[in-house]
């Protein structure tokens, strides 16, 4: 499983969706609310054994930025 697939899998669980498109963002996904945003950050930290700063979490507003943030921590 590559990085993108792993992140999409986590997003599917957090957002409780069968499929998550790669263009998903806070603007086009009603399920991406503030609580699920924090849950997503926590699940990503656990899955990749990383720590995200509050500023970094705030910047993760779409799939591409999530990928960039995780890659920068690995």
Structure commentary:
- By secondary structure, the chain is an all-alpha fold.
- It has a single domain, classed as ACP-like (Non-ribosomal Peptide Synthetase Peptidyl Carrier Protein, Chain A).
- It is built from four helices and no strands.
- It has helices at 3-15, 34-48, 54-59, 63-73.
- The mean pLDDT is 97.
Helix content: 55-70%
Low-confidence stretches: none
- How much of the sequence lies in strands comes to under 5%
The counted number of beta strands is 0
Cα Rg:
11 Å
Do you know the CATH architecture? Orthogonal Bundle
- Average pLDDT score: 97
| CATH homologous group name | ACP-like
How many domains is the backbone divided into?
1
Number of helices: 4
CATH topology: Non-ribosomal Peptide Synthetase Peptidyl Carrier Protein, Chain A
CATH class: Mainly Alpha
What's the arrangement of secondary structure elements?
Layout: H1 3-15, H2 34-48, H3 54-59, H4 63-73
Helix pairs in contact: 1-2
């Amino acid at each position: 499983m590559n990085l993108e697939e792993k992140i999409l899998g986590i997003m599917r669980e957090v957002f409780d969706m069968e499929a998550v498109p790669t263009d998903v963002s806070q603007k086009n996904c009603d399920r991406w609310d503030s609580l699920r945003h924090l849950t997503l950050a926590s699940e990503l930290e656990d899955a990749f054994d990383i720590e995200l700063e509050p500023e970094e979490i705030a910047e993760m507003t779409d799939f591409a930025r999530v990928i960039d943030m995780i890659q920068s921590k690995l």
